[in-house]
Write a structure and sequence with these properties.
- By secondary structure, the chain is of the alpha+beta class.
- The chain is built from 20 helices and 23 strands.
- The strands form 5 sheets. A 5-stranded antiparallel β-sheet has the order 2-1-5-4-3, with helices on both faces. It has a 5-stranded antiparallel β-sheet with strand order 7-6-10-9-8, with helices on both faces. Strands 12-14-15-17-16 form a 5-stranded mixed β-sheet, covered by helices on one side.
- Helix 11 packs across helix 17 and helix 18 runs parallel beside helix 19.
Length: about 650
Amino acid sequence: MAASMIPPSEDFLRRMYQRSPVGYYRSTFDGRFLFVNPALVRMLGYDDPEEVLRLRLVSDVYWDSAVRARLIDLYRDPGVLDGVVVRWRTKQGTPLVVRLYGYLLPEEGCIDATAIDVTELDAAQTQIEQQRQALERSSTTLRLLWKQLPGLVWTVDRELRITSADGAAIANFGLKVEEELGKTLYQFFGVDRPGYLPIRRHLEALDGQWVSYHQEAFDKQYAVMVAPHRNEGGAIIGAIGVAIDVTMRHRLEQRMVDAQRAESLGVLAGGLAHDFNNLLVAILGNAELGLREPNVAAHGRGVLENIRAAALDAAALTTQLLTYAGRGEVVAGDLAIGPVIDELLRLAAPQIPENIQLAVEVPPELTTISGDATQVRQVVMNLLTNARDALAPTGGTITVRAAMVETDGVTDEHAVLSPPSIGRFVAIEVADDGPGMDARTLQRIFDPFFSTKPNGHGLGLASVLGVVRSHGGGISVRSQPGEGTVVQVLWPARRGARRRSGVLPRAEVLRTVMVVDDEDVVRDVLTRLIEDLGYAAISAASGEEALTVLEGATEIDALLVDLTMPGMGGSALVSEVRRLRPRLPVIICSGADRERAGVPPAEGMLAKPFRLDALKGVLVNLIGPPCAEPPDVGVLGGA
């Protein structure tokens, strides 16, 4: 026991000093080495201790000479250096990071120190710190990203217990994350069945599947994806869910469907109107012929008058169908909207009950619009009538506004139909504070024959849509139950009248008319009507047949052409007639206006169905009385 307390000999200490892998040295306060061990020589990159002893710590060893002076001042009073990290320079000029331990001996004016090379450790720690900072930045960026994106991200464990949740959409749900953590999805959704769609999808994710579905919540639409959550070993420890707010995309898709549906209904309405007009031509034409018979009894005449009246009423309905389809005639010109609204309000005033108030907000300096005056009046009057009916019998307020607007193509999220593209428009708005409409009704208000009125035929708003569409404008409707209804119509705000249809008056004297129509009953009645008026008439059942007759006949003085026929249609026939017989005038007989059908300008136009007087007027204007002699007519215009 006593032997163990014997202090080590000087030789032992010297051997330890010389063989130690740790650097030892003694230096003066002013930075001169007094002695160094071999480990320190190697650490500094030298081969000979004498080289190191000639070095000055301040200028030759310390990377920053001021650091040593600060260390001396800092540790002079404690007298101990305890793991201070400093940066040295090797013989090769590379940095060396060392940790110093030692004692300051002021009475001897020197320092005994131990230096441990921690360069690699310091580099590793620096790298770890950089990685830690990068991870923190990534984590912060990810958290900020999810807090700003219109979505939600969450994780659940294998028991479907919520373990984390984040994202901007949390605010939409009115949830507090800390209150939801730990709940199962059964508790969160308030259900107890695994067949509930979100729970079923999470269970599928726990089985290793990637699944997606749509979820509606708080008036928002979310696209949801759920995937397995795996640990480093690949085992599934839960599920990760991501939900993105796709409400705007969903609404845009819905509007595209609505627009395509409206377009399809327009095509259907136009087709029905065309076919129905052909039948009305036969009905009305035969009624007219019957009424011209001198021997018809009074009772029979009354029956024919009723048939004609009913046919004319039916013709009015087909006109509205054509308007909805965007095939009505439009004679556009500059129109001041303020006087139009004042006029219509005066006309509508007697029909508005006393319990309904009218408010008008139309600036007098409002820019004129480009539109057909008759059709613009029809649109505004229809909207006023609908607002009045919505307020009956309880009463309320109808507000009519008009203002200049700039549209950027972005629509109100509750609008039924989108406004047109970017541009300047005059907005006419008719609002009521009535009961409003639910979403199902709102989606159908422009459908032909859909009406919420007991005696309505459902063509009012359908024709409004057609008029607005034919003018290149837009319309939107906002309504919710209990909050009234706002209908806004956008009209192009520009000057310059345009005439898109009408009769080009002619005074040439002609005698014979060729009727070209694929419908036998229409062709027959038109031929009989023309003959009954005193003109000669021949007919053809197709465009090809008409061309054959024209090539061999010179006595034909006018052509009455239907637009829609199988094979060679009316447009192609007119173009070919212009080439073969440029002197031959053409009368178009159709339920659609000629510009929309792409037909070259014609000298006459008859909209199906028509009265006998209309046919007579066109023929007289173009070819004069049926018995007049035809002079040299020259080349007719309009081709």
